[in-house]
Amino acid sequence: MADSIRSAALKVTEPRLAVLAALTSTPHVSAEQLFTLVKAQLPSTSLQAVYGVLAAFGNAGLVRKVEPAGSPALFERRVGDNHHHLVCTRCSVVHDVDCAVGSAPCLVPENDSGFAVHAAEVTYWGLCPACQVDLAAL
Ligand SMILES: [Zn+2]
Ligand SMILES: [Zn+2]
């Protein structure tokens, strides 16, 4: 954990370690959810400190921010592979999906209007297995 912080040329601090550990065990969490997780380990942490750590990690390429419509920004450690997300429209659970084809941008627009496309971000919306079971039981 400390190694990946050091390799990003960042100073290893307790809040940084705690945020990275929380993101490792619980991907796709908002800053507020992370704050709750980190606070359990490090009671002196503030929400502001968590935002600061996330900004530093984001700049260093250690975390990726995903922003499904209607949801707060979510953070995860899986970076650099341009994977996509499945989001449940009922309970908002988020799962990773590998690239549709090959590597980034993995989806090529039919007409790129002259853009040099470097990434494609796809959100698949649907009902997660647990919600399908819940709804079937109603
Ligand atoms: Zn669901
Ligand atoms: Zn993801």
From TrEMBL:
Cofactor binding annotation: Binds 1 zinc ion per subunit.
InterPro entries, alphabetized: FUR, Fur_C, WH-like_DNA-bd_sf, WH_DNA-bd_sf
Keywords for the protein's UniProt record, in alphabetical order: Cytoplasm, DNA-binding, Iron, Metal-binding, Repressor, Transcription, Transcription regulation, Zinc
GO terms for biological process, alphabetical: negative regulation of DNA-templated transcription; regulation of secondary metabolite biosynthetic process
Entry superkingdom: Bacteria
GO cellular component, one term: cytoplasm
GO MF entries: DNA-binding transcription factor activity; transcription cis-regulatory region binding; zinc ion binding
Cofactor: Zn(2+)
Subcellular location as annotated: Cytoplasm
Gene3D superfamilies on file: 3.30.1490.190, Winged helix-like DNA-binding domain superfamily/Winged helix DNA-binding domain
Binding site for Zn(2+): C88, C91, C128, C131
Protein's recorded name: Fur family transcriptional regulator
Species of the source: Cryobacterium roopkundense
